[in-house]
From TrEMBL:
Designated name of the protein: Uncharacterized protein
Length: 100
């Protein structure tokens, strides 16, 4: 079951963080997953993933978060790959904090 959340206005501090470059990006046939690392108020890292599809409209390239039926297996593969990457980064962060 999917729950849709209402749109909200992002606080200024979040807007600044959203300009960060992704720490990792995966691509498959015009669809990309970008992993962003952010910090909580307590300083703990957490990750967010943005999945987009690039398409050409005339001479201009555009991106969208809307996917067709045949895009969905690619979205699934990119989401899984992103999930594994985040798990790897979290494990690495835990092991380096254990060494301290």
């Amino acid at each position: 079951m999917f729950r849709f959340l209402p749109n909200f206005i992002m606080p200024e501090s979040r807007k600044e963080n959203s300009k960060n470059k992704p720490v990792k990006k995966f691509q498959l046939r015009g669809i990309s997953a970008s992993i962003f690392e952010n910090r909580s108020e307590k300083g703990s890292p957490f990750h967010k993933v943005s999945i987009t599809r690039t398409y050409k409209d005339g001479d201009e390239f555009k991106t969208t978060g809307s996917f067709g039926r045949d895009d969905l297996p690619l979205v699934e593969a990119l989401a899984r790959q992103s999930w594994f990457e985040i798990l790897k980064r979290e494990a690495k962060a835990r092991s380096s904090s254990d060494e301290e």
